[in-house]
């Protein structure tokens, strides 16, 4: 239940709300705006299969690499300054991507974008925890919904805009949101510099507002902590951390496998047209939108982590079995919706990163560890599915492997449902954090 100490969302934090939402929108729009206009780009300069494959592999690779680098940079620069740097990288990359004239430039500009996105992915949960400790459920709902919406909007408008004014403008226009996201954070940084009486940008609101859920609040001392390097090493020794990583990794695997292969599977197994396969992929993505609205509140207020995880995992398994056993055109919509329930795992994992740590500082490290491991898995599985398809000449074995991953993730989901922080787990096993 929400405590009486919770204060209005906008009270003293309007800039943080705007900064987080604009950054969250940019994280997905930067990724989703390219693939719809690939054909228009290739009409201007050649894009080989190798280049397209490299661009497809860049997101999880950059997310994993910059997920590991981000805590080191945050330690030196602070979370707000690093957020500004991440948004500036996205802005510059998006503009450059609209100006390139050959494939190498396209790859390099895309890498700059994904470097910024990789840092932003890690910083969002700690920012929510830092500025909204009393409103984690509500703010995570807004944040994950912004990300979900920015997954749908670019594919819908990219091609019409490209047809009207060209693909370069269609790609570069998304820089507006990333650039706008810089402004609130710069204002907060300047206020701190020019006004000595302004509150420090260190866990604002902690002193005057109680956490939304006292069970997830700090259960021990908050102020004193070892170095980030030592903390990162400790995280690798905590089973709860690996359970969170596997939960996030499973979500990422399902998303990247679906976006890479689901249309092909629908055409070859379900015998539908390419346009219908594209609609089914959109349906798969759309299923995750309601979950972004509901899951943060269900987890923070009602502790529904385990039931939600089971709904996502079991629904995904039933969808895969349906594709294997009854791939009839009239049933593909049902199997797609059921498989799309794995979309519950993404907002679930993001909320858990925020509430399974005591402080924003440890949340940065936990976010880095969990997302880096998850994106490494996400980079491997789409390639593995393609290799298995080529080796077996069909989709039965690849789909069974994807389903087996969901089965293997269930114990991790149960462990992630424990209402403890990573600091609690360490202290229970090893003593003082």
Automatic annotation (TrEMBL):
PANTHER family: 2-NITROIMIDAZOLE TRANSPORTER (PTHR23523:SF2), PTHR23523. The keyword Transmembrane helix applies. The chain crosses the membrane at residues 50-70, 82-100, 106-124, 136-157, 169-189, 238-259, 279-300, 307-326, 332-353, 365-389, 395-416. This is MFS transporter. Keywords: Membrane, Transmembrane, Transmembrane helix. InterPro entries: MFS, MFS_Cyanate_Porter, MFS_dom, MFS_trans_sf. It is found in: Cell membrane. It is a multi-pass membrane protein. Residues 12-420 form the Major facilitator superfamily (MFS) profile domain. The keyword Zinc does not apply.
């Amino acid at each position: 239940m929400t405590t009486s100490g919770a204060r209005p969302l906008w009270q003293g934090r309007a800039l943080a709300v705007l900064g987080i939402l604009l950054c969250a929108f940019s994280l997905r729009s930067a990724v989703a705006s390219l693939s719809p206009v690939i054909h228009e780009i290739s009409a201007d300069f050649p894009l080989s299969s190798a280049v397209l494959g490299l661009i497809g592999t860049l997101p999880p690779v950059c997310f994993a690499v910059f997920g590991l680098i981000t805590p080191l940079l945050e330690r030196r620069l602070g979370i707000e300054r690093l957020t500004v740097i991440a948004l500036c990288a996205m802005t510059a990359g998006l503009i450059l991507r609209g100006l390139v004239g050959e494939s190498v430039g396209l790859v390099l500009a895309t890498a700059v974008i994904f470097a910024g996105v990789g840092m932003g992915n890690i910083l969002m949960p700690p920012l929510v925890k830092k500025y909204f400790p009393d409103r984690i459920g509500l703010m995570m709902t807004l944040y994950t919904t912004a990300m979900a919406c920015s997954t749908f909007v670019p594919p819908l408008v990219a091609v019409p805009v490209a047809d009207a004014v060209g693909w370069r403008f269609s790609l570069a226009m998304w820089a507006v949101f990333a650039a706008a996201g810089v402004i609130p954070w710069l204002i907060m940084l300047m206020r701190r510099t020019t006004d000595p009486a302004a509150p420090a940008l260190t866990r604002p609101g902690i002193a005057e507002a109680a956490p939304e859920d006292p069970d997830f609040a700090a259960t021990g001392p908050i102020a004193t902590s070892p170095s980030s390097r030592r903390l990162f090493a400790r995280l690798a020794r905590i089973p709860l951390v690996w359970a969170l990583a596997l939960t996030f990794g499973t979500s990422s695997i399902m998303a990247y496998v679906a976006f890479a292969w689901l249309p092909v599977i629908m055409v070859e197994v379900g015998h539908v047209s390419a346009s219908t396969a594209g609609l089914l992929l959109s349906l798969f993505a759309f299923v995750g939108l309601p979950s972004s609205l509901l899951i943060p509140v269900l987890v923070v207020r009602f502790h529904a982590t385990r039931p939600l995880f089971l709904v996502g995992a079991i629904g995904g398994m039933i969808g895969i079995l349906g594709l294997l056993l009854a791939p009839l055109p009239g049933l593909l919509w049902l199997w797609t919706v059921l498989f799309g329930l794995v979309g519950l795992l993404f907002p679930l994992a993001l909320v858990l990163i925020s509430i399974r740590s005591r402080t924003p500082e440890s949340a940065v490290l936990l976010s880095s560890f969990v997302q880096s491991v998850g994106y490494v898995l996400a980079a491997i599985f789409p390639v593995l599915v393609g290799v298995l398809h080529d080796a077996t000449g069909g989709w039965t074995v690849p789909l069974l492997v994807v389903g087996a991953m969901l089965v293997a993730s269930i114990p991790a989901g149960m462990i992630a449902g424990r209402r403890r922080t990573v600091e609690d787990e360490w202290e229970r096993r090893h003593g003082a954090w």
